[in-house]
Fold:
Amino acid sequence: MPESKLQWIEDEIAVLKKQGLFTNIRTLESPQGARIVVNGESKLNFCSNNYLGLANDPRLKKAAQDAIERWGVGPGAVRTIAGTMSFHLELEERLAEFKGAEATISFQSGFTANLATIPALVGKGDVIFSDELNHASIIDGCRLSRAKIIPYKHNDADDLQRAVKEAKPFSKALLVTDGVFSMDGDIAPLDKLVTVAEEHNLIFMVDDAHGEGVLGHGGRGIVDHFGLHGRVDVEVGTMSKAFGVVGGYVAGKRTIVDWLRQRGRPFLFSSAVTPADVAACIAAVDILEESTDLVEKLWNNGRYFKQEMQRMGFDIGHSETPITPVMLGEATVAQKMSQRLFEEGVFATAIGFPTVPKGKARIRVMLSAAHSSADLDEALGIFKKVGQELGII
Structure:
């Protein structure tokens, strides 16, 4: 009998398991929150991007329920045919106002927003300057564009300047970076990058997925954080993290938004976000416009947790945000620690290659405004116990 045509996949999976890089996906049996139910057991949740605790907020649920009664459960078509409801336009107008941008266009996710935007702005014969640690969705969007991709050293405006000068001449070029890098929690130096972009007439794009609802006044994002309104051409955002729902959007120059309505392929060829999701997103914007309390609590929780982890001797990298990477090195160590944390009551996933480079595996702790002081202290006690048990501290 010939070898199975899928044998190579089985072999690769076996290698991943041996290296501690095989991902076992756990199933939640409760809504997102500070505590969740996994396999019938209550666990402290430190895996979610639910930064502000809005994923199970009663105000968002009520808005979604009301929208279903009025608008039904699905849009029924892509936006350009018959899937655009007045609700979609209302969300886009509200997001533009919230972001201080000329216009916005909404997508099904932050990932599809990047896949729509980059190939619409540059193509074969053009150039993209991309931070070497940019998210996979940016990388995939760059590849789809067929433009020449030139990476520059992480958060290094001087290396970007070098790369741009060496790449000249070019007719059209895009500079793209994450705003907050989700694996390390550090922030792109937008104030320095924008100077390079303006000097060389680069289209400047930032993916602010982990800055929305976190950075800036009341969570308005990294452009607001640096006071660069009008100087960044494209801001990609997501509604599936701090806003607690699902979806993505692009905010920025009206010309770019108009162009994406004509050439953004996920906008043109995939159905719109559901009415319930749109209504919940609008409710989340309402909450952030009314008060900065949730954003402030998130940052207070982050400062306290990071301070205590450092005091115990954990290496938490160089995070500038509530994201807290617990640096462990080897993937097998990270997997073991994640398992022991889970057994003790903390759900915190191990992150390894290819999400992070080999030798830089970690536990990524995602803090939330939903966590109480008691939650944080309980988790810190468990981290200390497991860390000492494994010889990490």
